[in-house]
Amino acid sequence: MKASRSFLVWSVLALCGLMVLGAMSWLTRGVLASEKTRVEAESRADLEERTRLALWRMDAAGAAIVSEENRRSSADFGASADTSQIKESSLIKLRFTFTEGGRLSAPEITDHKKRLTELRLLLSQNELAGSEWSILTGAVDASEASWSNTLKDAKLEATSNINLRQSNRLSSNRADENYQSNFNEVERSQRAKTVEKTISKMDLSSLKKQVEAKPQPAKMAAAKPEANFAMEEISSQSISDPINELGTMRPVWIGENLFLLRQLSSSAAGKTIKSVQGLWLDHDVLKKQLLAEISDLFPNAILTISKNPATDPLALVSFPFHFTLNESAPIVQPTLSAPLLIGWVAVLIALLTAAALIYGLMSLSERRASFVSAVTHELRTPLTTFRLYSDMLESGAVKPEKRSDYLRVLSREADRLAHLVENVLSFSKIERGSARSQVREMSISDLLRPMHERLESRLATADLKLKMDLPSELATRVVRLDSAAVEHILFNLIDNAAKYATASDPPEVEIHTKAERNFLEISVVDHGPGIPASERRRIFRAFHKSALEAAESRPGVGLGLALSRRLAKSLGGTLDCVDSAKGACFLLRLPLPHKP
Predict the structure, then answer these.
(1) Contacts of 262 (CB under 8 A, 6+ apart)
(2) Together in a domain, 226 and 371
(3) CA 134 – CA 124 distance, rounded (Å)
């Protein structure tokens, strides 16, 4: 194949390969980007779902605390409380009642006087303007207003998200930020509704029954004022005082202190008494309790003060805490999936196969062209000799005493053509798989001796002698082979020696035989120039000679050795060119049957 045509073929293949690889790269990039987006969306959706679950858990725990205190009798918040019925807790610093007149009282439990002093100091130092009463009532009113503004009826679920679910797949919905945002708002309103039901205030008749069921403790005398404060501890309203109105416990921040407060209105001696009852909570203990509920979901989460919980999407509804996850969706590094990897392997294999196929076709084309040109040269030389010598013999230009020489040349050229045709036909049969072998049992002596004369005659034409070495212990060894195939192999090797070892010293070719590990080894050694190691693989290629090589080298088309190696393989053996001290050495290994 011409160099320009070969370059064109490989250029087209390279261009097609680049286009295929470019398309696969573009597809891979798109798939990896899509996969990364999908996985990140799934991670964000998982984070959102865990966040909603964590808020539910903390609000459930917080609502239980508020509900327990909200259902407690008003008598449990004053000095007249039955302390035997009040369980002290690290969560609650102080239960207290603060009347409109400025009177502050608390159940007489551990450190209650110290706590009352601290509470008055806290209220007096608070940054909010006004009296202690106005601070407390203002905080309760602000908490009630914030709670009223908290959405408790989710409408978005019936509109936006329903439409999204109907138009998108589930995976698309989970990855949609609007869907998750809507869902968060819906879930928050549901949490608010649940908390409202959990901590709803009791009706007055139920509260009166609780109060009447409690034993009436003795009235407590007013305590002495503490230093630096004009404070007086008195009991809250009497048990017999009728309750007109009782508010719901609401969590509020006063400074950086957390309280649960509710307003109370009662009647005494024809007068209406207003008071604020509540709990001073240890918010650090409360945060630990709430975070313990979600340690499996967010082990590093924290709770901070939320000043505007009504509009904070990550605020609890039971307590005004802002939920900080301290966790983000992981950064995903996409990897090649199995189908994509298989696709890449398939494309690469296809490209390599196409390249190998084109290389094989081009090589076959070159070999065919070389064979045609070489055979043409090989046929032209003897045909020219035939025409010239036959014309000379026909015209009588040859003297009688020279005719035998001319006839000998014609016979040699005929044998040469016959051998060429025989090799071509045998190679063609092997390539098509139609070669038939005639395997039979015989001794090694019967295998080699019949071909001695033919081999010797071929060497005689090149002024070479044949030396065949057959050990006596091998002569009677039985083999099971196709003798014609073995003879064809050895004749090709001898023919090769006759072509290239004509000027050898000594002028002889040796054939040695020996048994080695269940193989019969036949080596053909000449004393010619030998074969370079770099050429030992090339000489076994079929039709490796070009017309120029055939014209400038010894006769032949480069088929004999290739045919001999294929014949050796068909017999279950091998044929190789091995190292030799001098000349070329070919080693034929044929299998021997096991000895009985």
Answers:
(1) 70, 140, 201, 246, 247, 248, 249, 250, 276, 277, 278
(2) no
(3) 11
Residues 278 and 230 occupy one common structural domain: yes
Do 297 and 50 form a contact (C-beta atoms < 8 A)?
yes
Give the angle 210-215-219 at the CA atoms, nearest 5°: 115
Assigned domain for 342 exists: no
567 phi, psi to nearest 5 deg: -65, -40
Q: What is the pTM of this model?
A: 0.55
Give the helix ranges, DSSP H, for 282-337: 283-292
State mean pLDDT over 123-136. 75
Q: How many CA atoms lie within 13 A of 17 on its CB side?
A: 14
DSSP 214: S
Are residues 219 and 235 in contact, defined by beta-carbon separation less than 8 angstroms?
Answer: yes
pLDDT at 168: 54
Q: Which long-range contacts (CB under 8 A, 24 or more apart) does 85-88 make?
A: 85/214
What is the DSSP secondary-structure string of 272-285? EEEEEEEEEE-HHH
pLDDT tens sequence across 138-182: 888 888 888 887 766 655 554 555 555 555 555 555 566 676 777
Encoded amino acid at 97, one letter: T
54 contacts: CB under 8 Å, gap ≥ 6: 293, 294, 297, 298, 301, 323
Residue the block writes with tokens 């021997």:
592
Q: How many domains does the chain have?
A: 2
Residue 420 resides in a domain:
yes
Answer for the pair 515, 477: CB distance below 8 angstroms, yes or no. yes
Pairing between β-strand 271-281 and β-strand 321-324 as defined by DSSP bridges: unpaired
CA torsion sign for 209, 214, 216, 221 is negative
d(Cα 474, Cα 232) in Å, to the nearest integer? 132
Q: Are residues 406 and 515 in the same domain?
A: yes
First-last CA distance in the chain: 56
Contact between 542 and 559 under an 8 Å Cβ cutoff? The reply is yes
Matching residue, tokens 């054939």: 511
- Give me 86's structure tokens: 């009040």
Indicate if 213 and 166 belong to the same structural domain. yes
Buried b (16+ CB within 10 A) or exposed e, 391-405: eeeeeeebeeeeeee
Q: Which domain holds residue 206?
A: 38-324
